[in-house]
Design goal:
This protein is of the alpha/beta class. The protein contains 28 helices and 38 strands. The protein has a nine-stranded mixed beta sheet, sandwiched between helices. Strand 22 and strand 23 form a beta hairpin. The N and C termini lie far apart (100 Å).
């Protein structure tokens, strides 16, 4: 059996929206709007027929032994070299054996089918067992005409052999005519095209049917014996008419790909064939025909082996990997149809030393480095000495191909000074999987897409082009793996372990499933009791969720302990450690409801709810916190409720427990900060068994747990730097809830406390929330209360304020005069001021027994230390900067006894 054993397609990532051509040139050629549908494929500036053929062929050979390839037949009408075998370049880039036959097929749009026919005949003869056929074209057109719209760039490769055939060759039929619908002279860049009606009526519509009918007659079959009909014709209407003329039903005809990529020249019949093979089933009969100075038609029958191909949808994959652009000038620049000034740096010598290229051809064209036979360390380039500092063996390097080895970006930059057709020039260090690295150019990407750790793959591209001598220098560049940048942005939990309480249903189940889908190993805890916590419990809910996770390919284990018991919480964490060895995430989700109005709230119902919600979070979080502190990483989620944050009738027990969890979070945030343990609280608005008869049915239906899970997963991730925050989430809406404190006002004085009457008179001011602040801890809140913003005072007689024009030293010189002895009774403190900046320095202010002493320098044991920049300090002294705002913004830092720093405002009046 002889036929196709594998296939691949390559369409460049860039696609030009055809309407961009019309929008820019429609004023000149308005008729082109008739074919301005969809997009045409366009090569990146460093691509040509050679590079596209290498890319398509690499994928075609991925699952095959290169040593088995006996010949390479390359077809193109746009070869970069007229007298240098282009197939030889491709063969060297692919690191094929040197003792194979290589051949160029050109000068006709049916060059691709000619190469295919030659390969099939060669295998049939028995001279060769496996032949790689590749066709690629990058046809040039003048701007603003139909051909610029019709054409596209692309390549396709077919592997022909007699083993593991996926599409058996049954026969072919060819006709040859010197039919000239277009031609290109030997020294001309562009085709000369005869009128479209000529090629349509006398070419496509007559020559293709002649070859197809000739093949049907030769094989003694009819068009009814054809399931898929493949042939090129860039006239959409004529493409359909040819099928009708042949008697083929429209559903059998493979799309001519005009809207997808455009006509890719001699590669197009093969490219269309790959699209048919993507969807082919065993037994499908495919007839493929080409066109160009005649026509060749082929008949294939798909075999069962197609189901064994390791990778399918090869055409679909390259079609979907795209970036559509609307910049027509970029297309013109990439095709060298405009000549922007590249600057003086572009005048650098570009001549290639052909002797060096020959000696280093495997390294340059094949990306072959070395691998130490002694320590197995890969390196590029290959040298006489192993780069491994622990080895340093000499003359142990064996050839090692890097072209197919995955790599990641270690460093990158965008250089606007370097010459680039698509600035900035992008390059950086890449690290290969398993070892080896080198400085590579990046291609097919934007600078903002690059990122340290981004997976890249190697692509064969033009490095520089010597215009004076007509020589193209090729090398390998790094391109981002399609979809890798988006994948890196995804929140993942690979290698992490999550513990979720109450995960047998509702929110907990969704958390468990979503974490598992993103790589986490999950402990699914659920007692299996009723929603009020009664009953003996059941293993079923937890086991069902574990089974769901395992069916998805994830890892999970069930736990049935009661969170309300101390030993239950410890067992839950022990389950994680015993099965997975660590704990990274804890979601305190378990809960029960026992709603009653407060007068009817018995102690039993009060205590039961506290035990599950508040004590349960304590019982699970405490042993987990110890583990997280040791590993210096952790994420803990508390679950509060609108009832706790805002109150709800009949839920005093539930509200109290839920608000208590916020207090627990606030303190754990402080204790966990230096260990990279972040704790946040979610207030979910979601339908569950706890709320199904509380909410109206129409609202309940909209409140799916899936709408809450996204923010919870983010808060559980390494990407989350939030800690100590409360978030409301439900029905796709998210916001933050916070406890804020208004600015304080002082009533009375140190010796005369305020009276209730004064409070009554000032209650509106006390209630005023303008200027309210968030505080990091209780000390900061107390400091804010005792340090209310001072009203701005106008200096008498229009003089400048006290701090205006003063230096830092002036401030400390005046402090003894500003000292208030009456306020210092019983006070014994030492304030250390560390003022940074050119005007700064260190001063100590000692207050004891109603006296004040100010001195330059540092105190041995200060009560508290205040640190500020000189400009911020003077702004605070002059009243421009509020002390509390300085503290909460980080401009004022206080070490030691923060509470004693609050005395400064009473002891001094500057």
């Amino acid at each position: 059996m002889i036929g196709i054993t594998d296939y691949s397609a390559y369409i460049p990532r860039l696609r030009l929206n055809r309407m961009a051509i019309y929008e820019n040139m429609g004023w000149f050629a308005p008729a082109i709007v008739m074919v301005a549908q969809g997009e045409r494929s366009m090569c990146y500036w460093d691509e040509d027929a050679i590079t596209m053929a290498v890319t398509a062929s690499k994928e075609c050979l991925r699952q095959h032994e290169k040593k088995d390839v006996d010949a390479l037949m390359l077809a193109s009408t746009t070869f970069p070299f007229a007298d240098r075998q282009n197939a030889g370049i491709v063969s060297t880039a692919l690191n094929l054996r040197p003792d194979i036959m290589t051949a160029d097929f050109t000068s006709s749009q049916k060059a691709g089918s000619n190469a295919l026919l030659a390969a099939i005949e060669s295998v049939k003869s028995g001279e060769r067992g496996t032949i790689l056929v590749s066709a690629a074209d990058k046809r040039e057109t003048k701007p603003a005409y139909f051909h610029e719209m019709w054409f596209g760039d692309g390549a396709a490769s077919l592997l022909i052999g007699n083993q593991n055939v996926i599409a058996e060759f049954k026969g072919s039929y060819s006709v040859s005519y010197d039919f000239i619908d277009h031609y290109r002279g030997a020294l001309h860049r562009y085709d000369y095209n005869w009128e479209e009606r000529w090629v349509r009526d006398e070419g496509y519509s007559k020559i293709i049917p002649e070859a197809v009918n000739g093949l049907l007659s030769k094989l003694n079959i009819t068009i009814e014996d054809v399931d898929r009909l493949v042939y090129p014709c860039f006239f959409k209407g004529e493409h359909k008419k040819i099928a009708k003329k042949l008697g083929a039903a429209p559903e059998k005809v493979v799309d001519n790909l005009h809207e997808v990529c455009g006509d890719t020249g001699c590669a197009h019949p093969l490219l269309m064939m790959t699209s048919a093979l993507d969807d082919a089933k065993p037994g499908d009969r495919i007839l493929m025909a080409s066109f160009g100075q005649g026509c060749s038609a082929f008949y294939f029958v798909v075999t069962e082996n197609i189901n064994s191909l390791p990778v399918r949808n090869k055409f679909k994959t390259t079609v979907e990997n795209k970036e559509t652009i609307n910049e027509y000038p970029k297309f013109l620049e990439f095709r060298e149809l405009i000549q922007p000034d590249m600057g003086i740096r572009a005048e650098a010598p570009t001549q290639t030393a052909l002797t060096t290229l020959w000696r280093k051809r495997h390294m340059i064209l094949g990306l072959v480095g070395g691998k130490c036979s002694k320590c197995q360390t890969p390196q590029f380039p290959k040298t006489e000495v192993c780069v491994n500092p622990h080895c340093r063996a000499r003359h142990t390097q064996e050839d090692y191909e890097f072209a197919d080895i995955p790599a990641k970006i270690k460093t990158y930059t965008g250089d606007l000074l370097a010459v680039s057709v698509d600035p900035p020039h992008k390059y950086g260090m890449i690290q290969f999987e398993g070892g080896g690295r080198f400085m590579a150019d990046f291609t097919d990407c934007k600078l903002e897409e690059l990122k340290v750790g981004l997976p890249v793959y190697m692509v064969f591209r033009k490095r520089v082009e010597d215009k004076n001598r007509g020589f193209v220098n090729y090398f390998w560049k790094a391109a981002p793996v399609p979809g890798a940048a988006e994948e890196m942005k995804k929140v993942r939990f690979d290698g992490q372990v999550a513990v979720i309480t109450g995960a047998g249903g509702g929110l907990g189940r969704i958390y468990a499933l979503e974490l598992a889908k993103r790589g986490a190993s999950v402990v699914v805890n659920d007692l299996g009791g009723s929603r009020d916590g009664s009953g003996k419990g059941s293993a079923t809910p937890a086991e069902q969720v574990v089974n769901e996770i395992k069916e998805l390919g994830g890892q999970a284990v069930a736990n049935y302990d009661n969170v309300a018991a101390t030993e239950g919480g410890e067992n839950i964490i022990k389950t994680a450690l015993d099965n997975f060895g660590r704990v990274d995430i804890v979601i305190n989700n378990a809960g029960i409801l026992r709603d009653k109005s407060f007068p009817k709230m018995e102690l039993e119902n009060w205590a039961a709810v506290q035990a599950v919600h508040l004590n349960g979070a304590y019982n699970v979080s405490r042993p987990a916190f110890k583990v997280m502190r040791e590993q210096k990483y952790g994420r803990i989620i508390m679950t509060t409720s609108g009832a706790g944050l805002y109150g709800n009738f009949g839920q005093s027990n539930y509200s109290a427990a839920k608000m208590a969890l916020v207090g627990l979070m606030n303190t754990l945030r402080i204790e966990g900060k230096k260990y990279n343990i972040n704790i946040n609280t979610i207030a979910p608005l979601a339908g569950s068994r706890l709320t199904e008869d509380v909410m109206p049915p129409e609202i309940f239906e909209k409140m799916k747990p899936e709408f809450v899970a996204p923010i919870v997963l983010y808060l559980c991730s390494e990407a989350c730097e939030q800690s100590g925050k409360i978030f409301n989430a439900g029905m796709g809406y998210y916001n933050r809830a916070a406890i804020m404190t208004s600015p304080g006002i002082q009533l009375g004085d140190p010796e005369n406390p305020a009276t209730p009457e004064q409070v009554s008179e000032n209650i509106n001011k006390i209630n005023e929330m303008e200027g309210a602040q968030l505080y990091d801890d209780a000390n900061a809140a107390l400091f804010g209360l005792a340090s209310p913003p001072q009203p701005k005072k106008e200096a008498a007689g229009g003089e400048e304020s006290a701090g205006s024009g003063m230096s830092v030293k002036d401030v400390f010189d005046k402090m003894p005069d500003a000292f208030n002895p009456e306020a210092a009774k019983g006070v014994d403190v030492v304030f250390q001021y560390s003022i940074s900046g050119g005007d700064g320095g260190d001063w100590t202010v000692t207050v004891k027994d109603g006296t004040c002493e100010v001195a330059a320098g540092k105190a041995e044991k200060p009560t508290c230390t205040l640190k500020m920049a000189d400009t911020d300090f003077l702004d605070m002294i002059s009243g421009k900067l509020d002390p509390m705002k300085a503290f909460t913004s980080g401009k004022l830092k206080i070490d030691g006894d923060v509470m004693k720093s609050q005395l400064i405002g009473k002891l001094f009046s500057l």
